[in-house]
UniProtKB/TrEMBL annotation:
Keywords: Aminopeptidase, Hydrolase, Metal-binding, Protease
Cofactor(s) in the UniProt record: a divalent metal cation
PANTHER family noted in UniProt: AMINOPEPTIDASE, ENDOGLUCANASE
Protein name, per record: Peptidase M42
Superkingdom, taxonomy of origin: Bacteria
Keyword Zinc-finger appears in the UniProt entry: no
GO MF annotation terms: aminopeptidase activity; metal ion binding
UniProt remark on cofactor binding: Binds 2 divalent metal cations per subunit.
Listed CDD domains: M42_Frv
Coiled-coil region(s): none
Single Gene Ontology BP annotation: proteolysis
Length: 341
């Protein structure tokens, strides 16, 4: 399964090579042109049949994770976060380090040795370490080096009815959707872009948007689902099983109303489920894309995912498949004059 292979690949910010190579192999026969820019964005192009608006579809390849910054004399590894990670979810988690995917476990002072105050708070990142079973620094240096990345060692699997769990749904789910759309034919010309370094500042998107300068952009994401106990319904960001989530705004962008309306109309015309993302925290590549040059009309549509930015997330496959169908039909709508810049 494509989504399984994408989520289990390692692709930290600035280290997206494994994911990019996997995607290249998947799309090489589906597009008219493909290149990688200086920052590492993978840019593909599929020429349309009509002289209409040029559409940029984007999803980021990178995931949250850790970077090794120091090797102690006792062989334990110190690290810094890459992207937003809650320290509370790290202790005892399995990780894979560097290109050799050396296995390790995130450790800390044992709870029975912690004082009362320490037990009341999340263990800070500078008190955590990664144990790879090395006896000393020299032995550890044979396996890993400073600057290596560490990703969570999480296997993709089906759970419950119609749901899957795995790591890096933010945003391998978007990459998978983008690949599935490239398998289809459209009359409009499409740039399908797999961006880098979104998790550390939306960096790849700003470069590629300046390069391509499309007529409009649609960003695919895996977004927070907060439909869990101890949350009031009005605090839900999105809910699993209620369809893809269309963003009205977040901290980085106010979505273009024409694109939002077009997506909503398309969903209603075709009897497809959808929901609005009901919180405005976080940011996406659209935050940089829409500010490029004279401005690029941009919007975001996402698959709701529980426990995002953690070692394992959960999503509903119906939401995923509905997003593909909705965007597919919206692209056909654009070709018939459904958007004017």
């Amino acid at each position: 399964m494509l989504l399984k292979r994408l989520t289990e690949a390692a692709g930290l910010p600035g280290m997206e090579d494994e994911v990019r190579n996997l995607i290249k192999e998947e799309v090489k026969d589906l597009v008219d042109d493909m290149r990688t820019d200086a920052l590492g964005n993978l840019i593909t192009y599929k020429k349309g049949k009509v002289d209409g608006p040029v559409v940029m579809l984007a999803a980021h390849m990178d995931e949250i994770g850790l970077m090794i910054t120091h090797i102690n004399k006792n062989g334990l590894l110190r690290f810094k976060p890459l992207g937003g990670i809650d320290p509370r979810v790290l202790v005892s988690k399995k990780v894979l380090i560097g290109p050799k995917k050396v296995p390790g476990v995130i450790g800390s002072k044992p709870i029975h040795l912690q004082n009362n105050d320490e037990r009341k708070h999340a263990i800070p990142l500078d008190k955590l370490y990664i144990d790879i079973g090395a006896k000393n620094k020299e032995e550890a240096e044979k396996l890993v080096k400073i600057g290596d990345g560490a990703v969570f060692d999480t296997k993709f699997a089906e759970v419950g009815e119609g749901c899957v769990k795995g790591k890096a749904f933010d945003d391998r789910v978007g990459c998978s959707i983008l690949i599935e759309l490239l398998k289809r034919k459209y009359d409009v010309s499409i740039y399908a872009v797999f961006t880098v370094q979104e998790e550390v500042g939306l960096r790849g998107a700003s470069v590629v948007a300046y390069d391509l300068d499309p007529d409009l952009a649609l960003v695919f994401e895996g977004t927070t689902a907060s439909d869990v106990p101890d949350m009031s319904e009005h605090q839900y960001s999105t809910s699993l099983g209620e369809g893809p989530a269309i963003s009205l705004m977040d901290r980085s962008v106010i979505a273009d109303r024409r694109i939002v309306q077009g997506l909503v109309e398309t969903a209603r015309e075709n009897g497809l489920k959808y929901q609005f993302r009901r919180t405005n925290f976080g940011g996406t590549d659209a935050g940089r894309i829409h500010l490029t040059k004279e401005g690029i009309p941009s919007a975001v549509i996402s698959v709701p995912c529980r426990y995002i930015h953690s070692p394992v997330s959960l999503m509903n496959l119906n939401d995923y498949n509905t997003l593909i169908e909705l965007v597919d039909k919206y692209l056909h709508k654009i070709a018939k004059g459904g958007f004017y810049r």
